[in-house]
Amino acid sequence: MTETATGVRKRRGPRGEYAKSSATREAILDAALEVFASGYNSGSLRDIATRVGMSEAGLLHHFKSKSVLLQAVLDLRDERARQLVDMEAEDGAETLRGLVALARYNASVPGVVELYCTLSAESTAPEHPAHEYFKHRYENVRASLDRTFGLLIADGRLLPGVSAERAAVTTIAMMDGLQVQWLLDRNVVDMGDALNEFFDGLIVGGI
Questions:
Q1: At a CB cut-off of 8 Å and minimum separation 6, what does 74 contact?
Q2: How much is the pTM?
Q3: Crossing angle, helix 191-200 and helix 92-106, to 10 degrees?
Q4: How high is the pLDDT of residue 111?
Q5: Are residue 152 and residue 125 in the same domain, yes or no?
Q6: Is residue 1 situated within a structural domain?
Q7: Using CA atoms, how far apart are residues 99 and 2, in angstroms rounded to an integer?
Q8: Residue 14 belongs to what domain range?
Q9: Mean pLDDT, each 10-residue run in order, the chain (207 residues)
Q10: Which 3-state string (H, E, C) describes the chain?
Q11: What pLDDT is recorded for position 12?
Q12: Strand pairing partners for 3?
């Protein structure tokens, strides 16, 4: 830490080897995202290491195994998503608007969308290293959306006859299905517009 003219001590930013290590980890994660987007099993640590100009042993200094690296990539994806979507908002419509913003953001990072679609399909196999991650992720997202739509029901904003549970399940199905269609042909669907239209069809007065 350093002391300013006012006597207030300021914490220095990352320096030296720490900053270099942090930048290296970030570069590895970005490269891993691209490689794993083609499939976890087909992507190798050697491919990832080559992309960042280091040896496989050097990569393992930062991430001790392929499965640990995969988990770090998935955590990074979730962190970026949380910056756009407040799943704990007390206004259900705010959460849904965040999901629309996330869909629009995803269109700017096709590698992330490819990673999610590929791994979520592969991980249906119980032996896949991301199986438990995706299983719990879907459970958590369903529960969060159930709460979101429950808030909208309490506010009288969800269309009559639509349950919070069913709306949560269909929202996940809509978002995942849009991603697959978009990956196959990006001129066919605008993920953000389509999701916004879907929500407007469920919410009285739209979102």
A1: 119, 130, 133
A2: 0.81
A3: 160
A4: 86
A5: yes
A6: no
A7: 42
A8: 8-72
A9: 50 58 91 87 92 95 93 89 94 98 93 90 94 96 98 96 97 97 94 98 94
A10: CEECCCCCEECCCCCHHHHHHHHHHHHHHHHHHHHHCCCCCCCCHHHHHHHCCCCHHHHHHHCCCHHHHHHHHHHHHHHHHHCCCCCCCCCHHHHHHHHHHHHHHHCCCHHHHHHHHHHHHHCCCCCCCCHHHHHHHHHHHHHHHHHHHHHHHHCCCECCCCCHHHHHHHHHHHHHHHHHHHHHCCCCCCHHHHHHHHHHCCECCCC
A11: 57
A12: 9
In a domain, 127, yes or no: yes
**Tokens (6 digits) for 32:** 């891993």
pLDDT of residue 7: 53
Does residue 147 lie within any of the structural domains?
yes
Report the amino acid identity of residue 157: R
- Number of domains making up the chain: 2
Q: What is the pLDDT of residue 14?
A: 53
Output the six-digit token pair for 31: 């490269």
* Burial zone of 16 (CB within 10 Å; 0-12 exposed, 13-18 middle, 19+ buried): exposed
Instruction: Tell me the CATH number at 49.
Output: 1.10.10.60
Assess whether 102 and 138 both reside in one domain.
yes
Residues 144, 51: one domain?
A: no
